[in-house]
Structure formats: C-alpha cells, structure tokens
Amino acid sequence: MPDPLVPAPVRGLRWSAATAAFQIEGARAAGGRGRSIWDDFVDAPGAVRDGSTAEPGPDSFHRYLEDVDLLTRLGVDRYRFSISWVRVQPTGAGGMNPEGIAYYDRVVDALLAAGITPFPTLYHWDLPSTLEAAGGWLARDTAERFADYAALVAEALGDRVKHWYTINEPVSTSLQGYAIGELAPGRQLLFESLPTVHHQLLAHGLATRVLREAGAETIGIVNNHTDVRPASPSAEDQAAAYVYDILHNRIFAEPVLLGRYPDIEALGMPPMPVEPGDLEIISTPTDVYGFNFYNPTTIAAAPPESPIPFVNVPTPGAPCTGFGPEWPIVPDALTDVLLDFHTRYADALPPIVIAENGASFPEPDSMTGPIDDQDRIAYLQGHIAAVERARDLGVRIDEYTVWSLLDNFEWAEGFTQRFGLVHVDHATGERTPKASFDWYRTHIEEAAR
C-alpha cells in the first residue's frame, strides 16, 4: 500500500526551481556591472550576520552551465532566475551594458538548448545605488526608470523569452527594506515607507505594458503572502491581525487585482501618493499571479507604547525552519491562504503560480558526506500536498517552484541559511545535489506518468 504520509504526485502542474541574481552570480565587479543597494548594504559593517558579501558564493556568472546541467538533471519545465538591473543598466539610466546583457543571452540560450523554459524576474531587489540616492522607491521617477530598463531587456531577450515576472516581493522591499531596515536599503521609516508600495506596483504596471508590447506571452508580479493568524480570540489580537493582513497581503494584491487600495487611512496610515491613471496602470491585466509562500504569521497586539500596533509571535505547536520561531512549518496554512485568495478575489485572480516555496535548515559549509535533508523533503512534501488540496477545492494553480536550486547568499543572513536542493561550498563553488534534489526529480518524473 502507498504510504499515507507521502502525497501522490500532483498532476497537471508545471515544475520549476528558482534563484536570484545577487544571491548566486557573484562577480560583483565583472563586465561593467554597476553598484546596487545590496552592494551598499553588505559593505556596511554589521549589516550581514556573518559579514559575507555574496562573493564568490555560487559564482553562477562563471558557472551557469553547471546550473543548467543541474536543472536538466532535475527535470524541471522552467527556471526562474532574475536579471540584475545594475548588470544590464549600471546606473539605472541610459543605454544597455553590452557585457551585462551578453551574460543573460548566454543563460537564455543554454536553457533553451536544454529544453528548459526561461522565466526571468526583472527585479529581485538590486536597485541601482544611483536611484536610491535620488530617493529610491520613495520617488515616483524610479517607476519610470524601471519601465525604461524593462524595455531594454525586452528588446535584447524578447525574441526568445516570452514569460516574465516583473517585481519580486515588494512587501519585503517596503516593510523590511524601508520600514524597519532589516534589508537593503536599511531605512527605518515605519509607515512613512508606504509610498514605496505604490511606486513598486506602478513600476510593475508600466513594465507589464512594455513587455506586452514586446510580445510577451506570460506576465505576472510575484507577491509574498502569508496566512495571518490572531494569537488569541481577543478583540485586540484580532484587530492587530487585521492590520497586519492589510499591510502584508491586501495592500499588495488588491491594487493589482481590483484596481484599488484597502482603506489604510481609516487605520491612521498616510494616504498613498496616487495620481490620476495610476491604478489603471497598476491593474493592467496579467496572465498569472506569482505567489510566494514560506510560513504562516501569528500576530498579537503590541504594547501601547509601540509605534506599530502588532507583534509577530511564535505559532503554537509548529516546528520551525533554520530561521527559528518566525518561520514556522504549517503546510495547511498554504491551503488556507490560497483558498482565502480564491474566495476574496474570485474571477479577478489570474491562474496562480507558486513562484517560491522552500525551507532552510542547518547544514555544513563543506561536504563531508551526503546531505540527507529529510526535513526539507518533508517540508516540500507537505506544501506540494497543500497545493493539491487547494486545487481540489477549486483554486487554479498552474505551476510550483522550489526555492532554491542552490544554496546561496541569503540576504542579511549571509551564508548562514541554506535553502538549496544543491549544496554549494561557497569557498570553492563546488555543487553537490542533496537528497531533496533526488526526491524532487523523482516526484517530477512520477507526476509526468
């Protein structure tokens, strides 16, 4: 008999794995690449947990053919990677850097030759430092500059690349980057950071129109969503969870899907800097809705003296990933939030792509033997089963993407967190598939039968 704890392969899904440019490419000074806010962040003393700077890391700038070979062995349909804005357009203005775009030419051609569909992301957090100096995502002009950048990339790659993500996780940039300073650019503006939400969504809408004119077949934004759970039935915790749900989920989804923002002014927050026509641009129809999910979030009311009305607390009874209590493992939460979106947005919701899902667990920096990462396998099993449950209940989900193909530079955590299906020795760049790599490959094979 089949093991009841192991879900049957999910049929009818496309399968993918993901990476991001700053996290895997290395070669920060190569080929005329410019400087991004993440270069500034990692160079700031104490900003990154282990003091690392993403160099050399996986060094995919030089070793991308090894990555394509891994993807081929894995059997995925698509590869989600990101294009570095500063590698293509070093200052965020002007023409294209020929050496930078030539790298992505090579990556795209290698993927196509291997029978793997390239699905690049235009922006995965590497804002040019020159644009940050001019206001960054607080400035409306940055959205216009992003549209210009999108046009350059589409002109260079659009003859072969037909599937695009625009902006990755604007919630992380806005809340962690500009509101509390945990991520680049490291600003602590609290609710004064909210214009960065609008300008990133405006950039998405402008880029969507640019890509559509260039012949794109699939376009979508990628938002990070979480199942928000009140810590208790108390009115205070319920109210705090409501505010958090608006700030983490609804403020990013509803302008794209419904053409309007939730009423944040009623909650005492500053109004969005919306100009006439903005919401029509932001809600330009897309073909898919990118949905990143890692964990639920349990929210309690903050103490009266707190400048924000909520606090993230441990989820009762849940095991955790390598990040600890803030990253609980609750696969059913993915089903719950997918069903919530299906109910809330109905026909306004395009087909969903799970654009990131994965987990980090403690693993050695250097290989001394096989890595039998059963915790990661269990995480992936549970969450793929959660996707299947949501599909059985009527949610259209077309694709599932593991984060990440490779162990990489995990932003402010440096090289201390490992998400990869493939172990990377960051001193040598050596790649070694883990047990989860073999499991995912087998799962994809069985799903195709």
Automatic annotation (TrEMBL):
Catalysed reactions, as listed in the record: Hydrolysis of terminal, non-reducing beta-D-glucosyl residues with release of beta-D-glucose
NCBIfam families in alphabetical order: BGL
Enzyme class, broadest EC rank: hydrolase
SUPFAM superfamilies reported in the protein's UniProt record: (Trans)glycosidases
InterPro entries: GH, Glyco_hydro_1, Glyco_hydro_1_beta-glucosidase
Family designation: Belongs to the glycosyl hydrolase 1 family.
Gene source species: Microbacterium deminutum
Protein name per its UniProtKB record: Beta-glucosidase
Cleavable signal peptide: none
